[in-house]
Amino acid sequence: MAHPGDVSALERLLVDGKVQARDIVAVIGKTEGNGGVNDFTRGYFTQSLMALLGRHLGEPADVLVKRIPCVLSGGCEGVLTPHYVVLTISDDAHAAAGDAAGNGPALAIGTAMSAPLPAWEVGRLAHIQSVAAAVRTAMERAQITSPGDVHFVQVKCPCITAARAEAAKAQGHTVATADPGRSMALARVAGAFGVALALGEADAAAAVEDAMLRDFSVLSNRASISSGVEVEVNEVIVLGNSTAWSGPLRISHRPMRDALDIGAVVDVLAELGIPAAPQVAAAEAARIAAILVKCEPDRRAQVRGQRHTMLDDTDINAQRHIRGAVGGLVAGVLGDTRIFVSGGAEHQGPDGGGLIAVIAQNSVA
Amino acid sequence: MAHPGDVSALERLLVDGKVQARDIVAVIGKTEGNGGVNDFTRGYFTQSLMALLGRHLGEPADVLVKRIPCVLSGGCEGVLTPHYVVLTISDDAHAAAGDAAGNGPALAIGTAMSAPLPAWEVGRLAHIQSVAAAVRTAMERAQITSPGDVHFVQVKCPCITAARAEAAKAQGHTVATADPGRSMALARVAGAFGVALALGEADAAAAVEDAMLRDFSVLSNRASISSGVEVEVNEVIVLGNSTAWSGPLRISHRPMRDALDIGAVVDVLAELGIPAAPQVAAAEAARIAAILVKCEPDRRAQVRGQRHTMLDDTDINAQRHIRGAVGGLVAGVLGDTRIFVSGGAEHQGPDGGGLIAVIAQNSVA
Amino acid sequence: MAHPGDVSALERLLVDGKVQARDIVAVIGKTEGNGGVNDFTRGYFTQSLMALLGRHLGEPADVLVKRIPCVLSGGCEGVLTPHYVVLTISDDAHAAAGDAAGNGPALAIGTAMSAPLPAWEVGRLAHIQSVAAAVRTAMERAQITSPGDVHFVQVKCPCITAARAEAAKAQGHTVATADPGRSMALARVAGAFGVALALGEADAAAAVEDAMLRDFSVLSNRASISSGVEVEVNEVIVLGNSTAWSGPLRISHRPMRDALDIGAVVDVLAELGIPAAPQVAAAEAARIAAILVKCEPDRRAQVRGQRHTMLDDTDINAQRHIRGAVGGLVAGVLGDTRIFVSGGAEHQGPDGGGLIAVIAQNSVA
Amino acid sequence: MAHPGDVSALERLLVDGKVQARDIVAVIGKTEGNGGVNDFTRGYFTQSLMALLGRHLGEPADVLVKRIPCVLSGGCEGVLTPHYVVLTISDDAHAAAGDAAGNGPALAIGTAMSAPLPAWEVGRLAHIQSVAAAVRTAMERAQITSPGDVHFVQVKCPCITAARAEAAKAQGHTVATADPGRSMALARVAGAFGVALALGEADAAAAVEDAMLRDFSVLSNRASISSGVEVEVNEVIVLGNSTAWSGPLRISHRPMRDALDIGAVVDVLAELGIPAAPQVAAAEAARIAAILVKCEPDRRAQVRGQRHTMLDDTDINAQRHIRGAVGGLVAGVLGDTRIFVSGGAEHQGPDGGGLIAVIAQNSVA
């Protein structure tokens, strides 16, 4: 896209009939804002997208925005390219499932929206439970029965702006924090704990408020949580593999133990039959449909024993730093800059690291 | 180092006798400023370093600073670690050279300082010629006769601040540009052209003012130029291999064709006998003495056909973006974040790319 | 507004019938982006506004956007409040003009749009002439015959992004500059020169390309030029006083000689009968309809003989610095933070200063 | 000063004998860093200053730094000029005190240093008490017996960096916060509470940890607290008026109720006999020796009922925003940009506002 309001590429696909508007179930993308509380590129894109879909579906934008999750991560640091991935389910998505041709499981998609979350629940237990319930609903819709078949859960959570904090206070409520940046962090943790609960990676006794930003052994290796001012509900997209689905795509994931974990990148590609030695060849790269990465500046101010300066920087937000670095690494392995790299990976993957998921076409036999 | 004024690590080595102050001929480092005109971390480090060396050598700091090049690149974006490399020449540096043991060429070092460059010469032909002359002097001192044996030339050039531009104007001179950021770019190009001239990568007819920031086929694949407010002369460090030297270290380099050129990183390591598949193993990593990288946000606003947003960003300087991305890539291959990554690679390596040089110990047979 | 896509305040006025959509002729506002090339809050607001007006007028947004100038300045540094001023002309705008009641001249408004300006004309002579012609058209529409009765001309000019520069090059054209930030500056100067030509503040021999960013004696004391990626034509709004108009509003202006010129602020208010000693009282403040300010970080790196650091700052754009400072000063005099403060005042008001215009209701006798 | 390491102006005064090195008791200044955790311009200036004083006093810099408070606030946003105020006490400072000539009280200065504060005490009760004790000591040294005669107390407190937090943890201690930015805020509050205790503005029951950043009615109208990585002790400078002192200078102060409180600026000047209508005339401006301002972005995200965007900005730190705005206002009233404006005014002056103090020469009769 040429700018955050540019949905012309999708418009062409719709006009040309290559994509049917009614098949679109979710959108995941990166926009070129700062990725923080005052990043309005996400809202701008969403408004543009929903206006486009509204024209094609004959539904009002404000109805669509409540039905179709549009999860955006702001911040295209370094080589990262603003782009969006459109998830569609065609009529024949289940046609060949379980057929005699012996096709293995294919990419399965399920989405769900929670009820609106008031500012005073953001980043608290009610938030965790709200996300967990939405993830379970999305899994059912994706016809994934075993949590082990889920490879990536994207959640977009509301956060607390200074204005929302004041409004909540005026209504007699306390908020988890009045600091907007911290509220985004807490919202992401609540999302991660919700996913961990739903996928059985943590139990209800562990995924509690008290462990948030404290006990980093409570985590999900498949959760990717964003937070932003532009949403008021938890938007959930579950991606996995299922024999109930057919199609050419498959998904895989790996935790990344730190920001230098090139091994995880190479491994997840290898599992999908895509070699990188050291870079994915152009022919193989064409098979890749989406790269989804979550990362985090190590809280302990070090990477493999050496100091990093991300956390103490007043000029550049720490999440912008880490997205640029990890984006540069993954782009170098892939030879492509269209990567969804989202910061704020608290409790999403190993502490100080994160995770990577790749959706790719099956190789032709 | 813990902060830009911290030279305690070197102080310990000096006190312990592991490094002799008189052997120190140059320092190359990264400090955690913004890397721009108003990055004072470079001056702070230099002041601290020269005060330390002054105490150990009994020479005033203002004399030392004119003798020992201290080339710093500000900006530790992403995972990069503030650090410095101290280049020393010991008494027996030439002892075993050409000996019967059949040792091949070893790392050779030569330094030189130009005369002070007035603000009105910065970024102009006189600047190019000043650098070329200093590089030739440094090569002689390094006892490198063939330009092909030079693998890396680090130059630090003065730039034009708003104040210096005003002062020059008051003295009746015009300056190449009154824009401080642009002056840093022009100074870097002058440096690159000077190196290209000295190494025979370009001829005097090509490396002219008119080609600066226009004809990107005029370049040096071995020049790394920094620019900053804290210097008034061109400081030059030539690094190469020479049979006139002995010692355990050797240097190699590769141009990087773009910000995703992981192949160049793997290749230069391979040439030094260090495999990275996908990451350098800890045992091999211990052999690496220095990683020197130069990179640049592609002027054409694309990397491999995909848009990047670095050049249009009002919040984060484009050089900060690219250092973070390329630093993330190289650190991922190495498994180490102590990398000298310098932005502003105009005419230093292929357009839109840059270069990498590695100094490593020879492997034990 | 609560965010750059929030036009709910205007929507309420339209729904309540307090403003008629068909009366709206122009909008001037400040949005909370960075004010630079990659500030998309302007486009976001414009999209939201035009969608709203489209619903009320039954016209497509892409038609409206070509008819109603929407001039936005990004950047709400310091105390500045995101807000927008809606300029309307009601049916009885000319009713009482020249009546026996002896009302003096009232606020007069005229708008015009130039033809689309290709990237290769941005910041060049063709740009100057395009703006001058549009200003003359807008003056005619405002029924202002004497240039002396014009107090403020707001122009929004297109600029050159990295992508547009590449596209122009691909079509065989050179652009004035490939540097996006510099293109915004040149576009602003072209606009200022166009206004100066139209108002007789400069003649055709002076307002030429060669004087741009060089001869700062060529200027307009009534031009306020913005530049942004979201427009392709020059949008012009002329504001003045005219006896052909009736109504309670009047406009006045003053050049500001530098960023500390509090006298200009107090004087322009005094001319409208509003005392500030030191601050405008609440009752008088209620008469103020709009404050329009243009300012600039002094190129010579000094304010009244003392150094400022705005031009050498790699972390914060110089225009963001100056908007914050001048906004703080004007807001302190007014006791109100809803001020349109726009940076980039090259050739708009005295060099290193800028200008201020105020629209206020006549005081009740 | 030309850059943060430039102490040449003071050097000239020392060399010319206009200032005696032994008379220097404290330095307060603004340096052009970002004012945050990673602002090393403060350390750079301090190192330069102490090296200079060391040469003139024959004392080692590391001794001097523990004796002479050097309180720096980073961040010269907008029009602010990097500068420093050198406080000296000459031999005859008490000569004419209480003399028959009927001179009123004159500026009185007292300084004190606390013991080193470990990271785990930063921002806690022990920190408050440490500051209060140091303020009382400084008052005694200033020969000020009535707290009402104290007009300004500058304190510089240590903060917690990511590295210090890790170190404290390794020693088995918890820290008040691991977030560096928040630690600076807590340190400032501890300092403010300490001053409030010492001056009787609050009592020991009120100025407790629990009230920090919660109960903003606990405050000091005369405290100005900075926090930075470069100090490990609390450095205290008490300024007031006392009949035990003689000399031409006097100090006054006013709380500022918000960022628009131009009235406080005009009032404090008026108390010193300096009119501003609207700006201080040059002749009167020459009497001003120092302007000391403390300010704060209003926590409630509004200034006088209108939204501000400072707290939600990911690109520019909120303290940088407010310093630029309030600096612009005060500079406009003064006609001078050499103003010490420090952010982070939590509990220092009214909530959302701050305070201003002015040191000026008595007018000649």
Task: Describe the 3D structure.
4 copies of one chain form a homotetramer. Chain A is of the alpha/beta class and 365 residues long. Chain A has 3 domains: 1-88, 60s Ribosomal Protein L30, Chain: A (2-Layer Sandwich); 96-247, Cyanuric acid hydrolase/Barbiturase, RU B (60s Ribosomal Protein L30, Chain: A); 248-361, 2-Layer Sandwich (60s Ribosomal Protein L30, Chain: A). Helix content of chain A is 30%, strand content 22%. Chain A contains 9 helices and 13 strands. The first copy, chain A, has helices at residues 8-15, 41-57, 61-67, 125-141, 162-170, 180-199, 262-271, 282-285, 318-334, and strands at residues 24-31, 70-74, 83-88, 106-113, 150-158, 223-228, 235-242, 249-256, 288-294, 302-303, 306-307, 340-342, 354-361. In chain A, the strands form 4 sheets. The first copy, chain A, has a 4-stranded mixed sheet with strand order 4-7-5-6. In chain A, strands 8-13-9-12 form a 4-stranded mixed sheet. In chain A, strand 10 (302-303) and strand 11 (306-307) form a beta hairpin. Chain A is globular, with a radius of gyration of 19 Å. Chain A starts with 7 loop residues before the first helix and ends with a strand. The relative contact order of chain A is 0.16. The mean pLDDT of chain A is 94. Chains C and D meet through helix 7, strand 11 and helix 9 of C and helix 7, strand 11 and helix 9 of D.
